[in-house]
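>> Question from a student workshop board

For tomorrow's exercise we were told to take the sequence and the ligand below, predict the bound structure, and bring the output to class. My setup keeps failing. Could a helper post the expected result so I can at least see what it should look like? The ligand is flavin-adenine dinucleotide.
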Amino acid sequence: MFTVLDTHPILDHGYVDLLDVQAACVQEYDPPCSCYDAAIAASARVSTGGRVRRPDHELIDYLVRNRHSSPLEMVTTVWRIKLPIFVARQMVRHRTASINEESARYTTPSMDCYVPSLKRMQGQSVNKQGSGETLETGKAQRAQALLSELQGRSKEVYAELIELGLTRELARLACGVGTYTTWIWRTDLRNLLHFFGLRCDSPAQLEIGLYANAMKDMIRPFVPVTLGSWERHV
Ligand SMILES: Cc1cc2nc3c(=O)[nH]c(=O)nc-3n(C[C@H](O)[C@H](O)[C@H](O)COP(=O)(O)OP(=O)(O)OC[C@H]3O[C@@H](n4cnc5c(N)ncnc54)[C@H](O)[C@@H]3O)c2cc1C
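>> Workshop helper replied:
Here is what the output should look like for this input. Compare the format with yours to find the bug.
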């Protein structure tokens, strides 16, 4: 089993676990930098043979401000994430991450399904991409009931297909994109920040935004200076 450094529940059945943050050890580091911030600064100093004498937090601010991003790749993060398949389809587009996902061929999926809250039952926004106002109560309740019904039926169909003896790799066709999956997601800090830049705010979809923002909050104590600079300059 993994050691979990931090965890955060997301949506109705999902979560994000921070499993690991890695960087080369540095012997000394001064607040406000963490040891991970200091590792970024130490990596950057290799470029100049250690001649740059400015404090670590100033050097990191310079690096982030000027897009000298390779030292940020020296910090690696590992996460375990339970997320609906439609969110996973958005997240998998971040191609620089390494992923290992639970297999619905080798295991029986939990068949947990995401049912949005009544408040989240929003209409189409005017720009055609995102969501607009919450539907009026009766329509929101009906939308929620329809989705719950469909997902309940999915579970029944899956169970019946397995009962019939159908292989799991085909029975999973009963799962819709609201079904949860779980994966290990590993990425370096440079690409994690790029992910935050694309997914923390509008126009990213609310659901992936909840994951991205939770991950941003969870990584902050590990790289306070680097994240602070990134928020100021990017
Ligand atoms: C609001 C929003 C809406 C979106 N809508 C759609 C959509 O409708 N359909 C759709 O298919 N996708 C959509 N996407 C996904 C989007 O096109 C990107 O694939 C996704 O955001 C990942 O961005 P990225 O390629 O920069 O990140 P990563 O894949 O993590 O790549 C990081 C960086 O590495 C470099 N890189 C990676 N791969 C290559 C490559 N093959 N060639 C050159 N450089 C590379 C680039 O510099 C890239 O910025 C959407 C994304 C957002 C945020």
